[in-house]
Amino acid sequence: MPIDATQAYDDNNIFARILRGDLPSNPVYDDEYAFAFHDINPQAPLHILVIPKGRYVSWDDFSAKANDAEIAGFIRAVGHVARENNLVEPGYRLLANIGQHGGQEVPHLHVHLFGGQFMGPMLARA
Ligand code: 5GP
Question: For ligand 1, what atom is nearest to the CA of residue 43?
Fold first, then answer.
């Protein structure tokens, strides 16, 4: 079920538990502002999730409330992960689902990073 992007932060959401180390993950990057790990159900040859360390439900919450250092740190981490995985050439796709119409399932901001093949059309046709 997609979540409401304006809901209060839930400290027991699955990515909060991964950040705390309560649940296992397959990490690829970790710094002060961001953590990146492989998606459990990959939709491309390479499918990495990059999440901020802070308690932000969605892109909306993060862009409104995070401080400049958190925003810069998170954005830089996404770029770093792409470069480290040799994705800049031939290219890759970033995706952030927000709320109901975005189809966001996990209520902790995450950017999907897809790579390893041509990603096809930007959106599935209805
Ligand atoms: P959303 O639909 O919220 O944008 O994407 C949530 C993503 O989280 C999905 O791609 C899903 O496969 C992934 N996911 C859900 N639970 C887990 C988990 O426990 N571990 C990992 N690594 N990924 C998860």
Answer: 10
